Amino acid sequence: MSHKCLVVIVTYNSQKHIQWVLDGLESSQNDIVVRIIDSGSTNSDYLDAVKSKHQLDIVKTNNVGFVAGNNQAMFDAESYGWVLLLNPDAHIEGENLDRLLSFAATKEQDKIGLFSVPLVRFNIDEKKPLPIFDSVGIACSPVGRWYDIDANQPVTALDKQPTAVDAVCGAFMLLRVPALLQCRDKQGKVGFESSYYMYKEDIELSLRLKRQGWGVSVYNDVTAYHCRGWNGDRKDVPYWARWHSAINDVDVALRYKWRALPYALTKLAWVKFFEKK
User: Fold this and answer.
1) What is the arrangement of strands in the sheet containing 55-61, beginning at the earlier edge strand?
2) Structural contact between residues 69 and 192, judged by C-beta atoms closer than 8 angstroms
3) Which of 90, 153, 178, 183 is deepest in the core (most CB within 10 A)?
4) What CATH number should be reported for the domain holding residue 224?
5) Are 116 and 244 found together in one domain?
C-alpha cells in the first residue's frame, strides 16, 4: 500500500545540507511530495539546482521564521495521509521512511498521532555519522527542564518496541493528518503554535496532541541523522534565540506542565535581566 506523505523542509542558508537531505528520500517508494519553504536565505539561488525524483515544490519567502515556514507549507495538509516535518539538516533513508510509514499505518498504531525515530548526530563536513545520539525523544526533568533523551550518549541498540515519550525533536516529526487537523493551536490554526517564532514549538505541538488523546511515540527500528545547529557554548547562541526559547518555555509550562513553571520563570528572568543582549 502506498502512503501519501507531504515532506516539509524550511531552509535558511541551507546550501551545505539540502541536497543531502533530498538524496536520502530518493529510495522511498511511497507517494512523496517535498515542499521546501525558504525563509529568507541570503541568496536562495542554490535551491534552483536541487533535484529529487519526487514532486518538488519550492517557495521562496522573506524570513518568516521556522514556525511560520512550516505552517505555510501545510496549507493543504488534508490532501495527505501524513506530514513529515524534516529539518534542513536532517536525513532519513527513503526505505527507512517507508518502514516507518508502514508501521504507523497499522491498526495497532491508529491512536498515535506523532512519530519520530532515534536521531544520530552527523558531521556534514566529513559526511559521516558520529557515534552519539542526538535525540531519542524529549522529556521534562524533575526540576522542569526539557531535554533531549540520550543526547550525546553513545549509540547503542534500543528496544525494538516503540517508546512513548512526552515530546519529540522538531528535526523529525511524522504527523498523522487527522490528528494534525483536530489539534489546532490557540488561534485555531493547523501546525505549530503560530504565536511562536521558533523554539519549543516541537514540545508544544507534542503536548497539544497528547492533551487531545493522541499518543507520541519513537519508532526504534530505524534511525535518522541530524547535524544540529547549536552545539557550542550558550554564549554563542544569539540573544534573540535565548529570549524566544525562554518565553516559549513559560507558555508551555502554563498550558501543559505546571511543575515546570518555576524553572521556566527563573530562566526567563535570567535571560531578561542577567544575560547581555
Assistant:
1) 55-61, 31-39, 4-11, 82-86, 172-176, 112-116, 215-218, 163-164
2) no
3) 90
4) 3.90.550.10
5) no
| The three grid cell numbers given for residue 236, joined into one nine-digit string | 554563542
- Domain residues for 271? 233-277
Cell match 518496541: residue?
Answer: 161
Q: Domain check: are 32 and 157 in the same one? A: yes
What would the DSSP string read from start to end of 75-143? TTGGG-SEEEEE-TTEE--HHHHHHHHHHHTSGGGTTEEEEE--EEEEETTTTEEEEEEEES-EEE-TT
| Same domain for 225 and 150 | yes
* Domain total of the chain: 2
pLDDT tens, position by position, for the chain (277 residues)?
689 999 999 999 999 999 999 999 999 999 999 999 999 999 999 999 999 999 999 999 999 999 999 999 999 999 999 999 999 999 999 999 999 999 999 999 999 999 999 999 999 999 999 999 999 999 999 999 999 999 999 999 888 899 999 999 999 999 999 999 999 999 999 999 999 998 999 999 999 999 999 999 999 999 999 998 654 555 678 898 999 999 999 999 999 999 999 999 999 999 999 987 6
CA nearest neighbour of 49 among 26, 77, 19:
19
Same domain, 73 and 135: yes
Q: How many residues does the chain have?
A: 277
127 CB neighbour count, 10 Å cutoff? 8
Cα–Cα distance measured from residue 122 to residue 17, given in angstroms and rounded to the nearest whole number: 11
Do 197 and 267 lie in one domain? The reply is no
Q: Render the burial of 184-216: b for 16+ CB within 10 Å, e for the rest.
A: ebeeeebbbbbebbbbbbbbbbbbbbbeeebbb
**Per-residue cell: 204:** 508544544
Task: Name residue 133's beta-bridge partners.
Answer: 120
The CA distance from 165 to 157, in Å, is 18
